[in-house]
Automatic annotation (TrEMBL):
Family under the similarity heading: Belongs to the PyrI family.
Source organism per UniProt: Halovenus aranensis
Gene this chain is encoded by: pyrI
Keywords for this protein: Metal-binding, Pyrimidine biosynthesis, Transferase, Zinc
Name the record gives this protein: Aspartate carbamoyltransferase regulatory chain
Subunit structure: Contains catalytic and regulatory chains.
The record's free-text note on cofactor binding: Binds 1 zinc ion per subunit.
GO-annotated biological processes: 'de novo' pyrimidine nucleobase biosynthetic process; pyrimidine nucleotide biosynthetic process
Residues covered by the Aspartate carbamoyltransferase regulatory subunit C-terminal domain: 102-145
Lineage, uppermost ranks: Archaea, Methanobacteriati, Methanobacteriota, Stenosarchaea group, Halobacteria
Length: 152
């Protein structure tokens, strides 16, 4: 088996997230809530040579599809990413992520007085700006290090 085959070793069922900017794979895992403690079977390729991106990361998660809110947040850190749904070792669905107008859930507002962070049963919701995201409840803007705001 060549190293190329190793990199693209197939999974029977699940999701392959391709064209992640090099170095962002661990943040993608954080978005998916994968911390290694539970049973998710995950393969990661880091800094794989890529024609389009120079170098890219690839994440494969077995027996799992992504929710729309996970894909929405993913698009913020990996705008070029493609999502491949795998069944029976075949790609049955493939699409690029799209930058959404809003993202809900998954991310936490950085304002500790925000209604979404005070233990109220209110899901966070952010408007997506060109250079960040804005909480629709308290107008707090998060520009840097969006992945630091992923809900645990
Ligand atoms: Zn807020």
């Amino acid at each position: 088996m060549t190293s190329q085959e190793l990199r693209v070793s197939k999974i029977e069922r699940g999701t392959v997230i391709d064209h992640i900017p090099g170095g962002q794979a661990l943040n993608v895992l954080a978005i998916l809530g994968i911390d290694g403690r539970e049973g998710d079977v995950v393969s990661i390729g880091m800094n794989v040579p890529s024609d389009r991106l120079g170098r890219k990361d690839v994440v494969k998660v077995e027996d799992r599809e992504l929710s729309q809110s996970e894909v929405d947040v993913l698009s913020l850190i990996a705008p070029e990413a493609s999502i491949n749904i795998i069944k029976n070792f075949d790609v049955v669905e493939k699409h690029r992520v799209e930058r959404p107008e809003r993202v809900s859930g998954v991310l936490q507002c950085s304002n500790h007085n925000c209604i979404t962070t005070e233990g109220e049963p209110v899901d966070s919701e952010f408007e997506v700006l060109d250079d960040g995201i804005r909480c629709v409840y308290c107008d707090t803007i998060i520009r840097d290090d969006i992945t630091a705001h992923i809900l645990a």
